[in-house]
Write a structure and sequence with these properties.
Strand content: 25-35%
Structural class: alpha+beta
CATH superfamily: Ribosomal protein S16
CATH topology: S16 Ribosomal Protein, Chain: A
Order of helices and strands: EEEEHEHHH
Distance between the termini: 33 Å
Number of domains: 1
Largest sheet: 5 strands, mixed
CATH class: Alpha Beta
Radius of gyration: 14 Å
Number of helices: 4
Strand order of the largest sheet: 4-3-2-1-5
Oligomer: single chain
Helix content: 25-40%
Shape: globular
Number of strands: 5
């Protein structure tokens, strides 16, 4: 099963995370298929950047987000746009909306 999850990077006691698409059996910091964004909880406010088109693609082919990533996707509006994509809206329009 393919998952969208956080991969820890950064120095000891200074975590930041990459949002990656990976096989569910691979280790947390192991091999991954594609990096689609990053998350830094240490900045004020938290920094989240997601490649909207790639996230929507991976969700559409069945990748399952973990709870933490689902929270980040919900906060950025990606999950709402994914629901609209499943309802029939074109991908290009949704990506342009996210960029604006």
């Amino acid at each position: 099963m393919v998952k969208i999850r956080l991969r820890r990077v950064g120095a000891k006691k200074q975590p930041s995370y990459r949002i990656v698409v990976t096989e569910s059996r691979s280790p947390r910091d192991g091999a991954y298929i594609e990096a689609i964004g990053f998350y830094n909880p240490r900045t004020e406010p938290e920094t989240v950047q997601i490649q909207e088109d790639r996230a929507l693609y991976w969700l559409s082919v069945g990748a399952q987000p973990t709870e933490a990533v689902a929270r980040l996707l919900e906060k950025s509006g990606t999950l709402a746009r994914f629901a609209r994509l499943k309802a029939g809206e074109p991908l290009e329009a949704l990506v342009a909306e996210a960029a604006a």
